[in-house]
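Form 12-C: Joint structure prediction
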Amino acid sequence: MKNQIKVLRAGYDWSQAELADRIGVARQTIIALEAGKYAPSLPLAFKLSKLFNKPVEEIFIPESTD
Amino acid sequence: MKTTTNPTTRAGRRYLAEFGISMTAYVAVCLFWMFHGASGHWKIAIALLAMVPAVLVFAAIVRWILHTDEMFRRITVESLALSGGATALIALTYGLLEGAGFPRPSAWWTYSVFMIGWIVASSFLRRRYK
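Section 2 - Result
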């Protein structure tokens, strides 16, 4: 699943470690999320949505709409 | 030690501390057994005494799974499941071979296969998310 986390994070000028601390995960999890290698749970997706003040569907883009 | 509000970092540090203390206690009991020895009922008591820190290691792993973040929890649980499945298959295969005359191995083999399987599966799954 593609996402806008890296772009949004850059907009706030946060490092990966800072974002990890803000949502309570490991930095490696942020790396995996930004690389699109890990799809987060709904609670984590909503946490990111609240933090970036954007709807979930604007942050996460499914690979296929089938 | 630097303080942190990140629950995953806190869980990692706590796990390392608990694991370190428990393993030190385990090694101390094993060394005591090796150098002082024991006989009769004491042999059984000291053998079981080594299980106290082993149970504490297990508790540290459970606490780590419960308090780490969702990606690491997934990696840990998936790697434990893969290792458990592989160990069961190997034990079943060897159990059948025992029926064909193969020698009966020590129970330590099952533990070793499971732990090696867990390390291998864990490093493979971690690489998948990099």
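Section 3 - Comments
The radius of gyration of chain B is 18 Å. The helical segments of chain B are 7-36, 41-49, 51-67, 70-99, 108-128.
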